[in-house]
Amino acid sequence: MTTAAPHAGPRPIALERPGRLWAWYALLAAGLLWGLFSFGYQWANGLTVTGLTNAVTWGLYIVVFMFLVGISAGGLIVVAGAELLGSDRFEPFSRLAVIVSGTAIAAAAVSIIPDLGRPQMAWQMLAAPQPMSPLIWDMLVITAYLTIAAVDLWILTRPRPMPKALWVMAVISLPVAVLVHSITAWIFGFLVARPFWNTAILAPLFISSALVSGTALILVVAWIVRHVSAWDPPDHLFSDLGKLLAWFVAVDFFLLSAELITAYTAQTDHHLAPLEMLFGGRLAPLFWAQLGIGVLVPFVVYATPHLRRRTPLLVGAAVLSMLGVFAKRVNILMPGMYDPQVSLAPGIPLGRPGQGFGIDELYVPTWVEYGVVIGITAFAATLITVGVRRWVIPASSGASDDR
Amino acid sequence: MREEADVLGTLLAGEDPNEGAQAAVERRPVIEALPPASREWGEIDVRSDAPRWGMLVDTERCIGCWSCAVICKAENDVPLGMWWNRILTDGDGLDTPTRDEHGRLAMEWLPLACQHCDDAPCEKVCPTAATYTNEEGIVLVDADKCIGCRYCMAACPYGVRVFNWGEAEKAPGVEEGMVQARPVGTVEKCSLCVHRIEDGQQPSCVVSCPAQARIFGDLNAPDSRINRLLEDRGGDQLLESKGTEPKVRYLPPRRRRSL
């Protein structure tokens, strides 16, 4: 545990040792290349190299899209929320939070590209948009949100503090943030063809999940950055975020329960099949893991003061929360997809020669889909690394200047 | 009124089905390629000045033979693994009858293709207006505009849209159809044989049905056969509660087909 840099603070600064840093960049580059290769392979062959069919038309890419839009909520909570509530408690986290959020929403925008059958035609959405489509609204609001993150970052990195500008941005960004999660929910929620999604609670549910996963991500990234650099926010900020998470997780769980219990007690045909899939069917392992490991365990840590003050434990809980929200995205998308409204034999032609028909054909992502997702993850991690090294880690620690 | 049996007779007696085959080298050859008897058989009965096309499927007459599904594939150049039109079995699986309340065997069919909804959910969600309703009420996909997001497939309650996942494969020896093939990465579906309607011909599934279970016509023409039947026997909409207002309607069986 030697300290390499001359101006080093009290803690080891692992990332700033050149070897570690370059190993990390090499890992990110490998991930990016793997993602680009997978995407190139898919572009050359068509989406036939995915596990998708005419029955399950949306899969891992859309889950990742929903998840990334959700985790972009963190910056807003830390910056705008605190600003509007008149608290500068999380001020040390604000740059980091804005970088992470901006990255998440940028990665969300990128993640929709590989889902398109013809990415080269995506410009049609700009050239000839059809204003009734929630996809167009989502494109607009994601662009707005990305712009807000960029302006926020600009304001936060000025030499002199600009509290007034920050307050104005907070007022603008709050409704935009509510919209970005609501419209993403409405992409699904407006569809009469999918009763499981076609519920008014979907938008509130997307907001509550966004608050959970967004805050959890800030916690995790802040902890990692603190661990590998001279940046040293106080411990109590972590447990304060943990306390906030206790509320977010509780609300998120309440909204989900309210929806599932209402749907289940109604026992109508068009609700029962997706619910049975969650409670006892093919999605049950993931669903119960989501509730147990992704909700209950982290909640106990967040809600118990002496547990949440142990920062590594708290960060572990935050990782579980993020996994739980990811599982929840799967458990929202798949029951809707597995539930055709006309389900007589033989079902839907799955779409490839020799593949036949299917009614609730199992969807399993292929290596191509995983590869693309690895690439998107590496893209996001690269942006966060560069941004954090540029704007979060104090320059006096040396390393961020010369590399 | 034409003598349908006679027309069929001439067809069977051997008009050269390949007459006009040279013209078929062009991508959209169409009606001139058909022998006269076939053209007469397929003619649309009456049409108003502003037609609104619809179809009625008489499930009492349907025998579940899949003729309409197969000719649809040939007509529209639908690749292997994909169907615009298919026959669902209301029984205990594809080829097994179920038993009704009296213990008798029962089996029915539901021919299913695009319902050409007046309030089409697919059209509303399409981000590029690639899916649109033409002035005669037919819901169509403009492949040039389609970006392949498959939102329309999630939005369609009937599950009748199919996607070009990869390079189209054709059955060996099957010639090209009457319409342009669609590129990889786009969504496609039943067009109500819009290329035939332009030439005054009924969709090929209607013409090819051996049980004459499909009735096609202009919902705006009071004397059309489809309107007379709708008046007489009504016509159910599939998944009526979804509020999509399909222009394809179904006549329920008047008596139960049971043994």
Series of H and E elements of chain A:
HHHHHHHHHHHHHEEHH
Please mark out the parts of chain A with pLDDT under 50 across 5 or more consecutive residues, or reply none.
1-10, 397-403
Oligomeric status = heterodimer
Q: Could you report the average pLDDT of chain A, rounded to the nearest whole number?
A: 91
Structural write-up:
The complex is a heterodimer of chains A (403) and B (259). In chain A, strands 1-2 form a two-stranded antiparallel sheet. The radius of gyration of chain A is 22 Å and the shape is globular. Chain A is an all-alpha fold and 403 residues long. The two termini of chain A are 22 Å apart. The relative contact order of chain A is 0.18. Chain A has helices at 18-45, 60-71, 74-84, 94-111, 124-127, 134-156, 163-189, 202-228, 235-266, 269-279, 284-303, 305-308, 311-337, 367-391, 399-402, and strands at residues 348-349, 357-358. Chain B is α+β, with helices and mostly antiparallel strands and 259 residues long. Chain B has a single domain, classed as 2-Layer Sandwich (Alpha-Beta Plaits), CATH 3.30.70.20. Chain B has 8 helices and 11 strands. In chain B, the strands form 5 sheets. Chain B has a 3-stranded mixed beta sheet. Chain B has a two-stranded antiparallel sheet with strand order 2-5. A two-stranded antiparallel ribbon of chain B has the order 3-4. Mean pLDDT of chain B is 87; it is low at 1-28. The chains are: A mainly alpha (403), B alpha+beta (259). The interface between A and B is large, with 55 and 54 residues.
